[in-house]
Write the structure tokens for this entry.
Amino acid sequence: MSAFLQCGKHRLDLSTPHVMGILNITPDSFSDGGQYNSLDAALHRAEEMLAAGASLLDVGGESTRPGAQTVSTQQELDRVAPLVEALVQNFDCIVSLDSSTPQVMTECAALGAGLLNDVRSLQREGALQAAAQTGLPVCLMHMRGEPQTMQDAPHYEDVTAEVMQFLQQRTDACLAAGMSRQQIILDPGFGFAKTLAHNLELFHRLPQLHALELPLLVGVSRKSMIGQVINKPVDERLAGSLALAVMALERGASIIRVHDVVQTMDALQLFQAVQTGWQEHP
Ligand code: PT1
């Protein structure tokens, strides 16, 4: 497996794990200066997450949580492009674009995005070609169907085997489109077309995914799979999210996608200290 990802001009060292901060774009509410205010708020949030140690910031203009509606290409571009541009101008960081839309990938890569994160694994018409053209690394994630309907009775005979088979197929499609293995990250897609039992089994069996010999990204922060176990609302899932973050690190994940960067970096540093630093602390 390659020891790094070349994210445009930034090189991400994969010999240690990293935190990807989720940068939400609040849709502009009212007329007066809404655009400036939401951009300004996002930049402040970005600054905080980078100061806390995030290696990447994930920016998306489409919600993909269960039941979410799709947005038009123009809407997505209007939301995401100004933020990608401002992040690249203001910070020396890797901007990950959370998008499935070829035109958005192309435009945001030109603005300096460093990673393409697609929950649809480049299955939209023209997405493979657009992504390959950028030369950027891609994160391929497992999902079935579309966010709007994906939680309607998902069924698997063997969720781990079927997720792996899907990710292998999408990897092959990327290679056929001219990408190299050094550009590919895999993500089992927690919370996407999976019941709680599927999510838990997949998490338990995460080490099996290393057979694909590619870096893994895990996103479980505040998700309903945590809520279903501890019976708590989304704003009370921090400790649960941290528990799963550490378990994902133990199972070899390279990148953890989270809302709470400060707390996850603490957990990651403790993980790292135990992994490598114990000899220096007699
Ligand atoms: C993810 C991910 C993502 N998750 C990647 N990108 C979301 N690579 C967006 C719930 O059950 O895991 N990996 N981009 C957010 N999606 C969800 C899905 C949010 C499910 C919430 C839930 O609560």
User: Anything to note?
Assistant: The first strand starts at residue 4 and ends at 7. Residues 64-66, 98, 117, 119, 139, 141, 187, 189-192, 217, 219, 223-224, 257 surround pteroic acid (CB under 6 Å). The chain has a mean pLDDT of 94. The two ends are 33 Å apart (CA to CA).
